[in-house]
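Notes from hallway chat w/ T.B., transcribed later so I don't forget. T.B. wanted the structure written out for a chain they're using in a teaching module, and asked if we could keep both sequence and structure tokens in one place. Agreed to drop them here.
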Amino acid sequence: MNKEKASRLIDAAMGRSLCDLVIRNAEVVDVCNKNSFKADVYVKDGMIAGFDGDRKAKEEIDAKGKFLLPGLIDAHCHIESSHLSPSEFSDAVIPCGTTTVIADPHEICNVTGLDGMKYMLDASEDIPLSVFLMFPSCVPATPFEHAGAILNKDEIEKFIDNPRVLGLGEMMNYPGVASCDETVMDKLECAYKRGKNIDGHAPSIKGPALDGYRAAGITTDHECETPEELTDKVRKGMYVMLREGTACKNVLQLLPGVTEGNSSRILFCTDDRQPQSIVEEGHVNYGISLAIQHGLNPYTAVSMATLNAAICYGLKDRGIIAPGYRADFILTSTLNEGIKPDEVFILGKKVAEKGKILAKAKHTEPLNVSGKMDVKDFSATKLSFRPGSDHVRIIDIIPGGVVTGNGEGWIKRDENGEWIHEDDKDILKLAVVERHHGTGNVGVGLIRGYGMKHGAVATSIAHDSHNIIVIGDNDSDMVAAVRKLIETGGGITMFKDGKELGTHVLEIAGLMTDQPLEEVTDCLRKMHQTADKELKVNSKIDPFMTLCFMALPVIPSLKLTDCGLFDVDAFSFTETAIKE
């Protein structure tokens, strides 16, 4: 805002000049008083001019009694998890009512470093969706794996003053915070000096440990597991996010902890949401609708997804339908049953209608972030697995999330000590292949609960360092799958009996593609069907997204990195073999 624009807006508000648009006969959702009122809403220069009095406008739209509410704000997401470029992501989520996102680009930065940060800023600069970024605080997430870059204080300083960079992304290095590690504290200092937010990532942290974590100035958390944990974190001054992603879902799990008393500290986010979930269910509006359908007051829900997020991140120009705020809003016929936008407006311009974007967002070429695949000397011998005992540790998949069990089991080995797959046991081989620096590292372990029969699945999406992760019951299919990803520059692929069953190419850092939403969704839908029909993957899990998180050594309890099997609870490597 400047004085010239303010003067024009004041004149329009006072009725001294013509407004650009009026939405007549609307049921306006008041997120401050948590109710609604009937009014005509006037717009000038992309801002709300008011709703009292009778003014003239260049354009009139009759809302016919529909609810008019602020554009939704996704408080924490990774655009990369949609597999879409920022422009395609914008086209996908705006029809769902999302007009602003707080995005953490740590996925692409883990692969391409500052080139990834620059690409995400450039590619989201001139699109309808408002994209604000949090500079990744943990690249790599831990020192126990190889990522494509290391981003510390000096790298943060190059971007933190950008007005679209709101602070530091999720601080996953809890031990580093707790011990006042100098490198971690230097990163935090970058935010301290500027009064910017620091996002959290603190599953199951409580008591004095949580006191110390919050004392570091960490503002938010999206990793709560119980209503009691939500209450505790709110009590200690944090904002807690209700998350509804594709694999990680906790809206219904945490909803019993949300009250009118603490609702001002609760936000909604998607974190990681795949394109087919967006197309078939929605974006942040899906999580909001779930909450409303399960008893949350709809006005409270809308306030959490708009006003609360705007306050948390200091976005003073949005989140409310009131004079002087951005004219980002939704018209919807429903509210008590959930939110399904009929029309979406950004800066007073209609941008989506009946679930469809009206004009494609501007595309930006993905410079310096494609073809990132440096794998050294990969062959079947790298998958050799001799655990040294028949009694072994096994990563146990727990459906519905990314937390895994620290399981045990008994296996068979041949005369050379090599693991033998048994068809009657749901135990598969898992491998993580380093792809950034040509180290030749391959970590190998065992996993249970995936359910696959006769084949292999591999992907270059493996949170957070995004090495290649591959699962299978035989080495030949696993090798073929890894080699396919090396050839294509990344993506997701499936093999069975030496035959390629399907490949989804992700040419941007092995994480995203420039392909249109419709093509991406169609490809993934077919691959999901194949994973179900041909590979018999457990129907209770997402075959690709679940696999993506099996290399994440900051989420309990047992994970695999390119350096080996990692016990997250002990925060150290462990042996697969259990010594008797």
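Follow-up for T.B.: The chain has a mean pLDDT of 96. Might be a good example for the class.
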